Amino acid sequence: MDEKLQKLAAVLKRDSVSVTFFVGAGISTSCGIPDFRSPKTGLYSNLKKLNLPYPEAVFDIDYFRKSPKAFYTLADELYPGKFVPSKFHYFVRLCQDKKKLKRCYTQNIDTLERIAGVRDEYVVEAHGSFAKNHCIDCDWEMETSELKRQMKSQIPTCAKCKGYVKPDIVFFGEALPAKFFDLWDEDSSSKTDLAIVAGTSLAVYPFAGLPAEVSTKATRVLINREKCGDFERNPRKSDVLLLESCDLVVEKLVQLLGWEKELDSLVKEGERALKENALYVHPTEKDLEEKVKKEAEAIAKVEREEEKKENQQIDELTETLQNIKVKD
Ligand code: OAD
């Protein structure tokens, strides 16, 4: 592995290098979140208590329509806010800080890329996230605080049509977000030097098909406990296979790159934030737009009130002056 890592480090050290990540549940297992398909520890082998017809039914939209309880039993366990990013997540963040990150395509719904500080323009949550919630019938949006409140005692229900509400994570039978298709259209036809695929069994399409579409000019790297997908079926001569734990590979890589101190301080920052219950999530573009709109509305309100006050003062002054004139 050392020789392969040195080769990888040499490419990463280049100033203009452009890196695209394709990641899955394996980058979050060290944070305490189980992956899906690992035998024994994976989520799908531990769902007996939910009495499902087949394990994936827990994320199936038709099954949810009939029996939403199974998903909500699990949602409570998986809900973001309790987990800190892994070294691998912070490595993606470091690539961003060093202007080497082109994009991070993730199948994960834990938002740990954002918590690690990867900005909205770089993250593509192909399977959605817990950031927003909508009614499955009329698309009405429910505030997250309300969803969490209702989750404690019932299945969250739409205030308008009484349909079930679920977080915007993509279920089997639902479309992937437009951002996924739009950005992949753009990214697959522009330059990437390194395509790093990590912590995924490449079992769920269309995501699983992306590594096969990466330009042959790019070097593909697989960091995973096992060989999978296109790396197994159609290997390329230039592929680099690092069949190890994601965090271990990152530990060794940052040593070769001289990034250890920066990685350490990010990891410590995350641990501190969790202790202080202050995990910061980078806002989405829509959140930022809403924030700017609200701020503009607040400023306009203050300006209207000030104008009203000024007009009142002018009226009072005019009246006083007229009274003085009348007396004269
Ligand atoms: P999987 O559980 O299918 O695959 C995780 C992969 O990561 C496996 O190959 C593991 O061997 C590997 N792995 C686990 N821990 C690791 C570690 N610490 N270091 C290196 N490798 C590790 O998870 P995904 O591929 O992400 O979709 O699953 C894809 C989709 O299937 C999910 O997004 C989810 C699921 O059904 C939906 O819910 C729509």
TrEMBL record:
Manner of cofactor binding, per the entry note: Binds 1 zinc ion per subunit.
Single Gene Ontology MF annotation: histone deacetylase activity, NAD-dependent
EC code(s) of this entry: 2.3.1.286
Residues at the active site: 127 (proton acceptor)
GO CC annotation, single: nucleus
Cofactor: Zn(2+)
Pfam families named among the record's database cross-references: SIR2 (PF02146)
Binding-site residues, NAD(+): 25-29, 35-37, 107-110, 200-201, 224-226, 246
Keywords of the record: Coiled coil, Metal-binding, NAD, Transferase, Zinc
Known catalytic reactions: N(6)-acetyl-L-lysyl-[protein] + NAD(+) + H2O = 2''-O-acetyl-ADP-D-ribose + nicotinamide + L-lysyl-[protein]
Binding site for Zn(2+): 135, 138, 158, 161
Record-linked Gene3D superfamilies: SIR2/SIRT2 'Small Domain (3.30.1600.10), TPP-binding domain (3.40.50.1220)
Deacetylase sirtuin-type domain location: 1-260
Coiled coil ranges: 285-327
Family the UniProt entry places it in: Belongs to the sirtuin family. Class I subfamily.
Protein name listed in UniProt: NAD-dependent protein deacetylase
Organism name: Ogataea philodendri
Lineage: Eukaryota, Fungi, Dikarya, Ascomycota, Saccharomycotina
